[in-house]
Amino acid sequence: MANRVANCLKMLNILRSGRTFKKNELAQSLDTNLRNIIEYRKDLYDAGFDITYQNGANGGYRLNDKCLLPIINFTKNEETALLRSESTLKNNGFLHYKDFESAMIKIKAGLSNKELQHESYINMAVPKDNDLIWKYYDIFSDAINLKHKIEMKYQAVNNKTYKKYTLHPYEMVFVHGFWYLLAKDENAEKNNQYKFFKLTNRIKQVDILDKPFYYDDDFKVEDYTGKMSLINYESYDIELIAYGASAIAISEKNIGLNPVCDWLDKDKLLFKTTIEGRYNAIGLILSLGSNVKLISPKELVEEIKNIILKMHMLYDE
Description:
Blueprint lengths: L1 H14 L7 H8 L3 H13 L4 E4 L5 E4 L12 H15 L6 H12 L21 H17 L1 E7 L8 E13 L2 E8 L8 E5 L4 E10 L22 E9 H8 L5 E9 L2 E9 L1 H10 L4 E5 L1 H19 L1
Antiparallel strand pairs: 1-2, 3-4, 3-7, 4-5, 5-6, 8-10, 8-11, 9-10
Helix pairs in contact: 1-3, 2-3, 4-5
């Protein structure tokens, strides 16, 4: 058995040269019979190496170079980066992870380190209904590549009924563990045509139409997305005071755009940042708890007061 494995590896190295070899040439080089060459080819094929055979005077065995990665010496840091990317993608709901994992198995065959040591990546947000999301992802991707219109029934979060859309699909966008389709709604008003649709079970039906659409070559996804959020919302410059443990927790987080921490004393923090979107800003303030006081902007201060009052009345019932 050991001799058979050794001969398979020798045959693979011979074929790596890129030229075509006659069966008798390989048999002579490996000091074996012609029948064994056929068996070695089958073993190598089962291991993932595509060895073709062509009849004729100029025919013979040839290794398909597309089935081989070039021999590259990765640095230790490069190996670690590859392994970390595998863990990160696995734990963040990457739809193509099975194909990526298969590719990594081949790559790791040449790495000195096969697994990460003493590192764990905890999954915080994996999309539900992965099979369904994969199905919609493939449909949308096909439509984008074809530049064909799609017809879709979609239920918005704040609606109880489904609405039929005729869309020009432009881009798949992955944000905070979820996939979105950015598409042009051909029936919407001109200043509100580009919309995001979350890949979720709120999609009822999708059909690719046999109707191409004109693709705007000036389209840039950055024109429709925010720097830290999905949609390019209005920005709010937030200023707040935090106390005690909340102050420490806030100082250790990277919240919003260009955050600035100014300790007024050991238990009191003046914190400034920019948040995209009114709902995001309000949600952030409420999530920070009772040891935080919003200073500005004033319109959000009043809105926060009203929300707290309504919450108080709700709990008093």
